[in-house]
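Obj.: predict assembly geometry.
Materials: sequence records (below).
Method: joint structure prediction, all chains together.
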Amino acid sequence: MGGNAWRVLRPLLSRLGQAGLVALLVGCIGFALMHALPGDQAFRLAAERYGPDIVDARAAAAMRAELGLDRPLALQLLEWLGRVVRLDLGRSLVTGEPVIQELRVQLGYTALLAGMALPLSALIGLPLGIAAGLWRGRWPDHAVLSLAVLLRAVPAYALGLALMVLLSVRLRWLPPGGFEGWAELVLPSLTLALGLAAVSSRVARESVAAVAASPVLAFARWKGLSERDAVRRHGLRNAAIPVLAVLGLQLIGLVEGILIVETLFGWPGIGHALVHAIFARDVPLVQGTALIMGLGVVLLNAAVDLACLLIDPRRGRQAA
Amino acid sequence: MSGHVRLRDLTVQAADGTPLVAGLSLAAGPGTPLVLLGETGSGKSLVLQAIMGALPPHLRRTGEVVLDGQPLPEGRARRGLWGRRIALLPQEPWLALDPTMRALAQVAEVYRLVRGMPAPRSRAEAEQRLRDLGIEEAARLYPFQLSGGMAQRLALAVLRATDAPLLLADEPTKGLDAARRDEAALRLRDEAGRGRTVIAVTHDIGVARILGGHLAVMLEGRILEQGPSERLLRDPAQDYTRRLIAAEPSQWPTQWRAPSIAPPRPAGEAVVEGRRLGKRFQDRAVLREVDIAVGRGEVVAVLGPSGCGKTTLGDLLLGLLPPSQGEVRRAAGLAPWRFQKLYQDPPSAFAPHQSMRDALRHLGRRHGLAPTLFEGLRDRLRLPPALLDRRPAELSGGELQRFALLRALALDPVFLFADEPTSRLDPITQQEVALLLRGLVSERNLGLLLVTHDAMLAQRMADRVFTIEAARLLPAGRAG
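Observations (raw structure tokens):
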């Protein structure tokens, strides 16, 4: 049993190490990029805090002194890292509120959006992919392929705009943006889900086609199992393995999509917050947001790892 | 349980009407295995698929399959007999067992889902089937944790669970090394001994000999001759059968005299030499302290079962893999491409969309070789010019392997590493390619490292024979 526990622990430990690395890299790169941006940080911050009309060089200088922005950059970075180790993300330079406080609400909105988009993409992509795999080479296969290529080729903001024009402006079925209730959730999550489904339907198609033609399924039938039992007991799990593995990769695309989609639909999640913080040069907020996103990806990947371990016994076990 | 089968005028046609199996009439009953012996493309596997009712949809079948006096139903109704009246042992069972399910469950589900027994009894029965075949310790293992022989026994346990009177076996020894092959054939004979009707298809005379029973030799969709196995193999009437029997390595003429124990070094200078070679993959030592040298004009064979490290040894000598310990020395002043490799599976060694003519033209352009060179080699390898415009999928295994040989020889190699070069070929083709290789070694004075699991083949081809045991290279005795 010791070996079995290790089988689960090892990937989790390696993900934990990855999380540490992500925190370090995201923090450093975020910090470096923010300072590489043109424009004066203190000026931008003052403009964000007091309004752009009353800001002058004096206000900016006061801001600089108050926040200690004139100290060496390396020192500012080390300070941030030191705080992160103590699980403190610092305070927003604009509002003065703790970053964690600012993010708590926004993270909930993003989790809602992602939590809606992922199942929706599975609901759209998997049945289409399975149908294409079972009828490969025939019209459902060609139709699903064309759709997937089209959706994949269109960038998320264009797809979002197209859906907005069609479903909100023309048909007036759904609100084009905002966050009052469930109706506002539909368009952004659909935009995200379609992009993800374009990939997952292809993977499901390949995987189902391979399993359908495999000797494993043939032997299951030859044993005397009914088609339903053969697919249920020997087809689905084997077909799910590659689909699940690709889901892990897709999560990175999800983060990218969230940034664009939240901004486009004015959804108050952390992607939206990140874009705002970048404009305001609110460095702790940018670093904090990027950190949470990075750790989110690592966490979800760890969950995918566990799911893969659960359905694929070959992982982490010695072969004959 | 009975299980008398009669095929009446069984014919299988391709979509364009070409007969692949032509008017076959055969009978089989409990206790006496029926063996169909033939090469790839002789239609022998189609016969099994026709009995099973699992022919590819574009093929047409006529004629009758009668089981215990009743013609078998067509189409979907035939499927109702699977696992109840007819069972099929798949080729390479390790690929057909579900990689994500433990061994016991794969047997128990037959009792549970096909025969409708309650779960606890299904498990108990399944455990008994594993015990019967001596693999009870595999109950909680997954197929990838089993050896080839164990996987085959597990597949047999599944089929015993079905209790179907008719057992079909499609190339039951494919992919097994010589010792495992004999075991597998014996086990199948036991199935017949238990009162089942066994119909087996094979290209391997050794397997046919062990199975015994009734033998039918197939060529181009027809039965060439049939009769009691023992008599037919001893005294074949047809010239083709005689050639098939003569193609077994144990029947080859012995032309080379060799010492009973292989000397460690070649008589002349070595073209490739490995000293105290070691190789580890992760935590596993595949090779340890191996000293080997191959000289010009000699064949050195390395024997061993699958996975013993013999391919790794060849790859180390070629420099395709770096050694973990020790060093490799190749004859000085020679271009790296004069050390060549011949792969086990010819189709995977060629670009699938490229004709042979293009493949050779690219090679010629890369190395500045004259087209006349290729023509000379093509004649020597007996490859007619008509084959040049074909792609790999349109060539037979033997033709493709000879093209691979042509490709290697064009670069004027001093050393050739042949990795199971004939294991995927039919017996007569195997003999042709092997004798051709042997002839080329003396003719062109090159050193050949032959890696194989077939001891008889090694003894017929090599000057010196070694085996790999527990990661070490040992000289092997030679029967001559």
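Conclusions so far: Residues 270-475 of chain B form a domain with the Rossmann fold fold (CATH 3.40.50.300).
To do: check interface contacts against the pulldown list.
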